[in-house]
Structures are given as C-alpha cells and as structure tokens.
C-alpha cells in the first residue's frame, strides 16, 4: 500500500513509462463526451457494417455531413455533432479514413477481429497487403482520428513516419516491399509501444459504466462494515480480516494483499474508523477498476486516471506531479 494524502494505492511497484515517448506515455482513455461514448458504445459488428456500407458507397476518402450520416447510420441532429468532432478545420468535410480508423479502434470487440475489417480499408491496390505508403496512411489515419475523437495530443509527422519504419524493420522488410495483415497483427502484439498505444484506446474506460461499477462495489463494502460494526463507527481489524463478506466485497484478494490493505487503513491501531475505512475502500475499488489486466500494478502514466476517479474531477497537472513525486514514480518530461 502506498499512501499519499487521502489516496491509498495498492499494487507494488508501478512501472514508469519512457517519458517523451508518445505511445508509452498515453494514459488509458476515459470516454466521457457524447461523441466518445457513441463510438465506444458501438459493437464490432456495427463497425463492420459501417465499413461494408462505406465500400458499397464507393469507398470515398472524405465525408460530407450527408454521406457521414448515411454511412454511419445516425440521425441528422446526432450526425452534426459527431461530424463536428472530426471537422476540426471547419471545411464541412471530414477524412473518411480517420473516422473509420477511430471508430474501429474504440469499438467494443477483439483487436484481431477489428484488424480483419480495418486492414482492407487501406489496401488501395487490392493485393491483400499494404505497401509502405499505404501503411503510413494507415498509421496517420489511426493517430489523427483518435486525436480528434479523444482530444489527445497528435503525433508529429516525423514520429508517425518513424513508427512506420519500425513496423517494416521488425519484419526485416525493405521499404519497397509490402507488409501483410498477419505481419501487422504480429507487430501490434509484440511491439511494446504500438501495443501500449492501441490498448490505451481499445480498452479505455466508459465513464458511466465505471462509476456504476465503483458505486456497486463500495456499497457492498459499506454493507460489510455495517454488519461487522452494527452500532459503532469503528470496526476491529481482526473482524475484517476474518470476514468472508468483507473478502468477497473486495473481490477475494490474497492474504498478503488483504493484510496490506488493513495495515494501510489501521496503521498501528487495532481498529479502523468509518472515515478511514471509506477512504481505503474507495482507493481499493478504483485501483482494481483501473487495473483492467489484473496485474496488481498500473503504470505511472495512469496516475491521473486514478486521481480523476478518486476526486471525481479532472486533476490539475500540478496535483498529478505532487502525487507522482510522493509515490517516487519520477517526473514526467
């Protein structure tokens, strides 16, 4: 347990990303705007149908509001709002490849299946493979589309080009050759930076779903406290340790993790008051929710997300850095 102010974090050592690297320093997305929730709420099957419709419409490289509404199958009022998310230069046209790329990545479904329907969008020559220019367009469309939809910092032109070089280099492919879908799939699985970047969006958090899940678990923990301390505002540590109800409400932690949590709540005392219990319980539930891979640790770049859910508001950068220093995670470059 690491304590800083009113925040308790469990999970041992948190890995610190290579600061300055855009892919590794991109924290997991919290989908909260209407546009983000719309695309995050789409199933893989729905996105697959959208791409099929786009091909049937002649695979246009840009959308007007009318064609955007038709291909994405959204009503006019909603279409205008979604369209404006991608129409950042306000010329009343959006890049179709950016829209399809972002919609595919953030949709609900396995990445392997997404790639199966996504790759043909950039196979302009129809060979079943992508040459260097096509692969470069694919990467640009993904990064720009996600940046517009999610409001993240866009990649520099040279940085995307460098990633494309790395993708070909990983398979010892000359830049004059083509890369197959399976090679792209293997690169996404094995390249740490690429995997981290895609994961940040493909496995982002749906804000309302996350809040509902947190509230439900906190309610179960509150019930456990009330049962173990029915007429008092304090509970004996040993009663919590031996309680099956408490363990179940926590998600059946290991004995080691449970001991660490109780120690962080109680300190040297043999009892835990209701305020300290509530603080520790909320920190525990938030950490477990953010730890989607169930590794018992989250990377330092996710600290802002932990603070966001803990305080129920966007943390100031200075606040994040204070906590970062207190947890010895190193300063973001």
Automatic annotation (TrEMBL):
<dbReference type="InterPro" id="IPR018247">
    <property type="entry name" value="EF_Hand_1_Ca_BS"/>
</dbReference>
<dbReference type="InterPro" id="IPR011992">
    <property type="entry name" value="EF-hand-dom_pair"/>
</dbReference>
<feature type="domain" description="EF-hand">
    <location>
        <begin position="74"/>
        <end position="109"/>
    </location>
</feature>
<dbReference type="InterPro" id="IPR002048">
    <property type="entry name" value="EF_hand_dom"/>
</dbReference>
<dbReference type="GO" id="GO:0005509">
    <property type="term" value="F:calcium ion binding"/>
</dbReference>
<protein>
    <recommendedName>
        <fullName>EF-hand domain-containing protein</fullName>
    </recommendedName>
</protein>
<keyword id="KW-0106">Calcium</keyword>
């Amino acid at each position: 347990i690491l304590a800083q102010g009113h925040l308790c974090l469990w999970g041992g050592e948190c890995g610190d990303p290579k600061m300055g690297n855009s892919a590794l320093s991109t924290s997991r997305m919290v989908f909260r705007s209407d546009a983000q929730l719309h695309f995050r709420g789409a199933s893989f099957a729905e996105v697959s149908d959208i791409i099929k419709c786009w091909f049937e419409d002649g695979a246009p490289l840009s959308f007007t509001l009318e064609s955007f509404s038709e291909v994405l199958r959204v009503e006019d009022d909603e279409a205008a709002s979604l369209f404006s998310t991608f129409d950042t230069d306000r010329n009343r046209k959006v890049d179709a490849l950016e829209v399809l790329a972002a919609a595919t990545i953030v949709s609900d479904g396995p990445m392997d299946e997404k790639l199966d329907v996504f790759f043909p969008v950039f196979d302009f020559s129809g060979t079943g493979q992508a040459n260097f220019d096509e692969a470069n367009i694919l990467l640009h469309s993904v990064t720009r589309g996600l940046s517009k939809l999610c409001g993240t910092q866009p990649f520099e032109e040279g940085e995307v080009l460098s990633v494309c070089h790395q993708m070909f280099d990983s398979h010892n492919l000359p830049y004059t050759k083509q890369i197959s879908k399976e090679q792209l799939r293997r690169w996404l699985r094995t390249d740490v930076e690429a995997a981290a970047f895609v994961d940040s969006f493909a496995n982002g958090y749906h804000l309302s779903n996350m809040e509902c899940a947190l509230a439900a678990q906190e309610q179960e923990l509150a019930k456990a406290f009330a049962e173990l301390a029915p007429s008092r505002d304090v509970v004996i540590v040993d009663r919590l340790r031996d309680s099956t109800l408490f363990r179940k409400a926590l998600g059946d932690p290991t004995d080691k993790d449970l001991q660490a949590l109780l120690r962080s709540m109680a300190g040297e005392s043999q009892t835990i008051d209701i305020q300290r219990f509530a603080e520790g319980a909320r920190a525990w539930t938030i950490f477990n929710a953010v730890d989607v891979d169930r590794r018992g640790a989250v990377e330092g770049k996710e600290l802002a997300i932990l603070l966001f859910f803990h305080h129920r508001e966007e943390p100031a950068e200075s606040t994040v850095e204070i906590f970062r220093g207190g947890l010895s995670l190193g300063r973001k470059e």
